[in-house]
Amino acid sequence: AAGHDSFRTAYHFQPAENWQNDPNGPMYYKGVYHFFYQHNPFRATWGNGNLSWGHSVSVDLINWSALENAMDPDSSFDINGCWSGSATFLADGTPVFLYTGIDANNNQVQNVAYPKNASDPLLREWVKPSYNPVIALPDDVVHDNFRDPSTAWIGRDGLWRVAVSAGLKDGTGSTLVYRSKDFQSWERNAEPLYSSGDAGMVECPDLFPVAGPGDQNGLDYTPSNGAAASYVLKQSVMVTLSDYYVLGRYDDAADTFSPVEADNDCRTWHRFDYGHVYASKSFYDAGKNRRVLWSWANESDPEADYIARGWAGVQTVPRRIWLSDDGKQLLQWPIEEIETLRKTRVGLLGAEMNAGGINEIIGVAGMQADVEVVFEVPSLEGAENLDPNQLLDPQMLCGEKGASVLGGVGPFGLIVLASGDLQEHTSVFFRVFRHDGKYKVLMCTDLRRSSTRADVYKPPYGGFVDIDIEKERSISLRTLVDHSVVESYGGGGRTVITARAYPEHVAMANSRLFMFNNGTGAVKVSKLDAWELAPAKVNLPGDGLITA
Ligand code: DQQ
């Protein structure tokens, strides 16, 4: 049954009960945000053959009301599951889904669905035409590796395009492009959008244009920005269970994509998140002219435990994404609407933290918190040396150099979800290294002491932060704590780490927050703001239905 338990999140999206995984078809329509998701309505596991599209609506992307499932597996072309897909607006503004059906022969095929009544802003009912599937399984594709149609885009020639993941029989992981005049009959382009023999099957492709460096506005696909804009291609890689993206150029005549200065193996690309998320999907939000990213964060405690809780899977806080000032990567930031949940605030200006310093942030309850802190680094003199092979694996480096391993410049950062005796705590921190005459900043979220339980997954996570610390001399950290979620944004959203934690002490609802510095060099906390966050309304019965 639904109901609260101490790990249930207060403001991260989840259904009232049972299983959720990938975000599907997010969109803004007639003043209402729609979120759909992979959902097993019967139990808290992924299940087999039971996947539906759950459906919730919101006016602020924070408070959500649950509607009936948008789609259930009930037709020959999806009878074994309605898997992931996307929403597209047709020329007249009507939204349409392209999604994967697991058909009666257990083949993966691509289907469309339309709103029964497009004048209803809530889009409660969806109709699957009987002419489905619109894209059958091709001969050279493995029968259970053909899925996850992207949002479609229209070219200067007036044809629609869609990207679909395909594991070819020769072992290549590919992203195919199909073209259509009418959204019903689709033809495969000879050239794939992406293909690699090394990364294996890739899933949930997302291709989208971005505005110029530093411009926080979003871009929608338009025929004219086809060749002009920079594009982002994102892939979810099954073997690493991680999402990767790269900037590149999209050729809107050939329908091919070329990464800018990057290896073709997508596992070498940037990561949206160096923690525990997968199957992310973005959408263009015409309401606020921005691009917003959703991602799924799975449970990482034993299956029997989440079955007993009756729910599994959350979504990260929706993030605004845009191109960094130097044009080299995307920046990510929690959408501004999250700030409406801020209540009690505590602040601090100009505190110095010496070696071994630890300061409690008193006055906000640490279970639902939003902490923004800026660390100034007066001297880089003591930075430890990094050898070249330590550059390859930031996660391993975070394991070797945890929060309690004294350093030169850092580790410094936050300790969250801490029990009174600090037996349980999760640390989120930076450490500055010297490498090749330059400085490298490592960001870590270390879960190894997050719970006294042995049977939960508690890795250290890590990624480098692409910041010129020598020039900037300061680095910011924002961490959102939500019961079993620790979502952290380093260096103004350059590096993001989302973790799931299961501390025993949260049952007592008395988690504490600290700042610390375990480096020999002093750091200055030039600014700290910490807020307790009010719970959002997230799909629970009694939360009420929004009215547009
Ligand atoms: N999850 C969906 C698939 C997708 C995978 C099935 C990614 O469509 O490839 O629930 O998590």
From TrEMBL:
This is Uncharacterized protein. The keyword Ribonucleoprotein does not apply. Residues 12-334 form the Glycosyl hydrolase family 32 N-terminal domain. GO terms for biological process: carbohydrate metabolic process. It holds the Pfam family Glyco_hydro_32N. Residues 360-532 form the Glycosyl hydrolase family 32 C-terminal domain. Keywords: Disulfide bond, Glycoprotein, Glycosidase, Hydrolase, Signal. The keyword Signal applies. Belongs to the glycosyl hydrolase 32 family. It comes from the Eukaryota. GO terms for molecular function: hydrolase activity, hydrolyzing O-glycosyl compounds.
